[in-house]
Amino acid sequence: MARARYLAREGRVADAEKAYRDLLAEHPDLKPGWAECFELLRRQGRKDDALRLAEGARAQFGDSAFSLALKGAALIELERYREALGTLEQAVDSDPDLALVWHELGYAAFRLGDRNRALLALDRAFGLEPHTETLRLRGRILRDAGRYQAAEVAYEGAAQAAEHAEQRAAAEREIGVTQRYAFYAPRRPDELTSAERWFAETGTVVLASQEGTDVPPPDDAALAAAFLDLARDSGWRFGQVVTLGPALPVWRTLADALRAPLVGGASFDPAACPLVVAQRPQPADAGWSTLTASVAERATGLVFVLAPPPRAHLHGCRRDRRVRGPPAGRPPATAAERRARAVRSAAPGGPSGPSSPRPRVNSRLGVARKRACRTPLERQCRAAASATLALGRVPSERRTIFP
Q: Within 13 A of 73's CA, how many CA atoms are on the CB side?
């Protein structure tokens, strides 16, 4: 089983699945093998395959609590929540001391909107078998209820109980998300606007927005102006503006407005609260890596780029657990809500004609975000679990600041 686990952690999913199935063919009574193979399929979104595997476990173990727990989990993935809850209740009757059953029952109750029952089930699961994924799910439920401090405590416990570095990193990311949601307390995540949820989930601030899809994206000058408005609203002060890559006229405009000297990368001073600017991310450049790493390590200063970053950097909504579902910190979303959460944005770079749609630069933040931004810059960056911010265009021409 060690080989299958290794292949799964390396991302070699097909090889890992084959290794698990070979293992189960040789040792069909090995329950951890069934459970881990099920989770592998679940993570890949292969709902029907997961259900078939659960039925295979039922053929092997009968109507035991273990096989019923796998079936209930598969039904959750298929969004057959009532049926899943009934199956899991049957599993509880069969063996009330199996932690996996209570964990999945808590997840099913959560998807049905019964948070109290979900939390009680997760408490029982954790009491039977302390597990970081149970604490992460508990944190997610508490955060969705607007109980941000309790959610943060749950995620901190998940980080401390993590068995692997990946689990610890995932829990620490959720701590940052929870802290950003707490900026908007007492409102719950489902009471926030799309832009506010985007900020909480990703640590990004929307700079430009549009009312229609026929509005051209903003040019560099418009984005720089929006950034300057944000800096003024937030009370940010930079000791220097550090340019990397091609020299653009907009950098001189930015430095003059910020009343900070414009210097090259060789004059970078990490103690001066620098604003590092570039046309696009330069991950292959050693100087870029050194400067951005220094900003992140000291949690002082920002990185501001104009061109699109790698798409992987924008995946701020990560998934919890061994349970699968909507991104952490918000309720299940429809396709329309997911599009809204992306916060379509593109503002003009120059004057619009009388008959053209009039886009606007959304440099003003909500009251809660302004309150967060008025804290010292170093404190804000720590609270957001990120010290580096950059500006980029995602494939649909959205413009945001992202960590």
A: 33
How does DSSP assign 136-179, residue by residue? HHHHHHHHHTT-HHHHHHHHHHHHHH-SSHHHHHHHHHHHHHHH
Rounded to two decimals, the pTM is 0.63
As given in the structure block, the two tokens for residue 35 are 């459970």
Is residue 386 within 8 Å of residue 403, measured between CB atoms?
Answer: yes
What confidence tens digit (pLDDT) does each residue in 276-322 have? 999 888 888 888 889 988 888 887 888 888 865 544 333 333 333 22
What class has domain 2-191?
mainly alpha
pLDDT of residue 250: 92
More confident residue, 290 or 398: 290
79: its two tokens: 């969004």
pLDDT top residue among 350 and 36: 36
For 94-107, what is the mean pLDDT? 95
Environment class of residue 401 by beta-carbon count within 10 Å: exposed (0-12), middle (13-18) or buried (19+)?
A: buried
Interatomic CA distance for residues 21 and 42, integer angstroms = 15
Tell whether the torsion through CA atoms of 149, 154, 157 and 159 is positive or negative.
negative
For residues 45 and 13, the answer to whether their CB atoms sit within 8 Å is: no
How many whole angstroms separate alpha carbon 367 and alpha carbon 374? Answer: 11
Instruction: Sort 187 into a burial class: Cβ within 10 Å, 0-12 / 13-18 / 19+.
Output: middle
- Report which of 135, 67, 137, 131 is spatially closest to residue 109, judged by C-alpha positions: 137
Domain residue spans in the chain? 2-191, 194-323+331-402
Letter for the amino acid at 256? D
Q: Which residues contact 375 (CB under 8 A, 6 or more apart)?
A: 383
Nearest to 322 by CA among 143, 110, 55, 135: 135
Say how far apart CA 124 and CA 121 lie, in whole Å: 5
What local confidence, expressed as pLDDT, does residue 126 receive? 93
Q: What is the pLDDT of residues 150-206, one digit of tens each?
A: 999 999 999 998 888 888 999 999 999 999 999 899 999 999 988 888 889 987 677
CA angle 246, 270, 244 (to 5 degrees): 5
How confident is the model at residue 95, as a pLDDT? Answer: 94
Q: Which of 146, 65, 159 is nearest to 103 (CA)?
A: 65
DSSP 263: E
